[in-house]
Amino acid sequence: MKTVPEISVVIPIYNVEKYLSRCLSSLLNQTFDDFEAICVNDGSPDTCSDILEAFSKKDTRIKVITQQNQGLSMARNNGLKAASGKYVYFLDSDDCIHPRLLECVYYFAQKYQADMVTFGYIKQKHKFPPEKCEVEPPYFTIKNIEKIPHKCTHMPLKCCTGRGRYKINYNAWTKLYKRQILNGTEFIPNICFEDYPHTLSVLMKAPLTVILRQDLYYYTENSSSISNTSFNIKHIDDYHAGLNAVYDIFSRKGKKEFDFVLKEIIPKILKHQLNRILRSPKEKQTALFDAFTKELVDLDNKGCIRFRGNKLTRYLKYRNLIKKGQTQCTIRSF
Question: Which of 226, 253, 280 is the last residue of a domain?
Answer without folding.
Answer: 226
